[in-house]
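EI: anyone free to look at a 378-residue chain?
SC: sure, send it
EI:
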Amino acid sequence: MTGSRRNGTRKIGPARAGHAGQHSSGHLGYLTYGGWEHDPRGDAGERIARHAAPGRSFPDRKAARSRARKAAPAAAIAATIAAGAAAYGLVGMGGTGLGGTGLGGTAPGTLTAAVSSAPPSGYALSGGNTLARASAPAFAVTTAVITKAGTSNGAARLAAANGAGVSRLSEAIASNMATSRQALTMLGKTAVASQAAKAHAAAVAKAAVAKAAVAKAAAAKAAAAKAAAAKAAAAKAAKAALACDTSRGMLPANVTAIVSYLLAHGYTHNAAAGVAGSVYRESHGDPESVGTGGGGLIGWTPLPSGFVTGNVSADLQTQLSALLTYNQGWAQYIPALNAASSPSAAADIYVSDFERAGIPAASQREASAEAVASACGL
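SC: here you go
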């Protein structure tokens, strides 16, 4: 026999047909959840139940479990209905009760009363798919019902607290925004004022620079005009006043014209006399003089074209202008030439630093320079 020990007894105990109905209707109050038998008294109750009805056969136990699945405790039904009523705000609303046709249409409080009057043994499904009282006992369940009055005060206090917090937050945000706007306004005004001040300072500086440039240009122009006027006056005075005694010896030809030209172009008396003494040594003051490889007043070598044309007056002016150009080639020595202490000293400076003659004949140049200064009253 399957499931039997060798002594003929079953592992799950001998079958007792008389206890078959005890699973659903007895005082032990078995409940079934997911196919497992469960005693509301806990593990101890289940152990008692197993030992109290060991004789049930397998078909009896299966039928009992099937009937037990249709039973539900009053606590589960009451808690579920109460929770649903609280969640959807059904407490205090109309209804026809658990055996009616719907939830609405009757006096207020019907649903709450129906939940509170659930039988201790719970409900079971009958043949007509309606709830009927179950025969199994169950523990009493106290259902807490949430009413409008229980939640309105708390909700009101919560709403009031939230409103106060939001009001204070709004006030703080508005204050901060006002302060920020004021700060930004002041910052903008400061930036505008700073930019205006910078622009004004830049305009003033630019005007000052322009004014200084104009004044400098006017001063330079005035100085140049004054210098030109002074030079012209000096040349005119020198030409008018200079009268050289040509009867004396060692004077170059055209001595008056040569000395006057040099004085008119900024040379000092001693410098003009020293240059004239060198001209005496090179050409005796004759612009048409031509020697071996050179010619002219200072013996240019080679002689430039156009210097000697046969027109003495024109060649003299050409060569005097060329003499000034030649001296500018040694401009670094002009200050020393003009600062010479005597006509003879000026003649030495000119022959050594300007002409650089192969045959200096310094004594002859010095003597002629002194003669020129004496004859022209320098």
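EI: The chain has twelve helices and five strands.
SC: 👍
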